[in-house]
Amino acid sequence: MNRQEAQIISNLQRADLRVTAQRRRIIQHMLRIPQHFSADDLLDYIRQEGAGVSRATLYRLLPTLVQIGVLREVIYGEEHTHYEVVEEEKEFHGHLICERCGRVIDFICPAVEGAIIGVSSEHNFAHHAHTLEISGLCEECQTQLHNN
Known about the structure:
Layout: H1 3-14, H2 21-30, E1 37-38, H3 39-48, H4 55-67, E2 71-76, E3 81-85, E4 94-98, E5 104-107, H5 110-122, E6 133-136, H6 139-147
Parallel strand pairs: 4-6
Antiparallel strand pairs: 1-3, 2-3, 4-5
Helix pairs in contact: 2-3
């Protein structure tokens, strides 16, 4: 068990939640997905790896992981939510979301981060978290639309 998995399990236990074999499998696979994922993406990935988990267990666990700060909801699409694992050492990043193909591009912008911190400070606001999502068209979809 790696450090991140151990920390997540510890967070579940502090929240008085049992750490079952299925929950452990979900956490292990969730940590291996390198990009944003939906509940169905994670379930498919787990099943492709030959592990068995209940869809109901997965769907109940994801909101709990968001609530205890392990996951972050990053895309509120019309059909379903996407998630990313919260990594303490990872620098804040925003998301560019293509409305046509659904592609999500992570970006880092220190100026935006500084502005958010500055505005919070200016208003004596105890800032805890923030997200930034920009919707539009990715370069590839713009090119396809232009060429059609």
